[in-house]
Design a protein that fits this description.
With 235 residues, this protein is mainly alpha-helical. The chain is 49% helix and 4% strand. A hairpin with a 2-residue loop joins β1 and β2.
Length: 235
């Protein structure tokens, strides 16, 4: 990718991670040699009509990578569109979204297969056009996790501090649920209407309980999140 990295997407381990690869298709300038001159022509007639051999599938690609079928609804070269959609509606980038999904899918008993993910990234995600080092994969995964935690704390505080009315909180939850469902559908998850409605009802029930409990907390007693000390709200 060529867009600027967010502050929390810095290299891990004090700069041990390699620079993030570009995820945009190569341009004409990328096809030139190092001194800026066009490469020599091969001498072959570009208009030759000789029948070409069919492409041979890369035998080095692991079987589970070849079978991986998420993100097939997104065509290659659409990174910018996916990134703009996510930036408008979430804190995460398309890079963090895709790699977080891969880290969940390629998790083993001993950890995440970051080398496999990085080396086969273009095979796994159509809009990612370059390979990543394990350090870059870990960087994106870590950035995703940090943003989810911060967004969760921000949302929960907004729900508990009585800033939103019950109706406004329902609107917030509806919008968030719609974005989440869309991302799941793009990943290839088939959501039945009945399952969607059940999930929305369960979320609404939980949020009503959050409001009730937070109201009791604000007007009864407060517990310090650092030391656990409980004290009256008017202290």
């Amino acid at each position: 990718m060529t867009e600027g990295a967010s502050p929390d997407e810095t290299d891990i381990d004090g700069g041990d991670a390699e620079p993030e690869p570009s995820d945009r298709p190569a341009t004409e300038s990328d096809e030139r040699t190092g001194d800026g001159e066009p490469e020599e022509a091969s001498g072959e007639d570009p208009d030759a009509t000789d029948e070409q051999d069919p492409p041979v599938q890369n035998a080095d690609v692991p079987a589970d990578v070849r079978k991986y079928d998420r993100f097939k609804k997104i065509e290659g070269g659409t990174y910018d569109r996916a990134n703009d959609f996510l930036r408008d509606r979430t804190y995460i980038t398309a890079r963090e979204w895709a790699i977080a999904r891969l880290c969940a899918d390629f998790r083993t008993e001993t950890g995440v297969e970051m080398t496999k993910i990085g080396e086969n990234l273009p095979e796994l995600v159509p809009f990612m056009t370059d390979t990543y080092t394990p350090q870059a994969v870990n960087q994106a995964r870590s950035a995703f996790e940090d943003k989810v935690r911060k967004a969760g704390a921000t949302f929960l505080y907004g729900a508990m501090c009585d800033f939103f009315t019950a109706e406004e909180l329902d609107d917030v939850m509806y919008e968030a649920t719609e974005v989440a469902k869309f991302l799941l559908e793009v990943e290839g998850v088939d959501l039945a209407v009945e399952d969607e409605m059940e999930a929305e009802d369960r979320i609404s029930t939980v949020m009503r309980e959050v409001r009730e409990q937070s109201a009791a907390l604000r007007h009864d007693e407060v517990c310090c999140p650092e030391c656990g000390h409980e004290f009256e709200a008017d202290e």
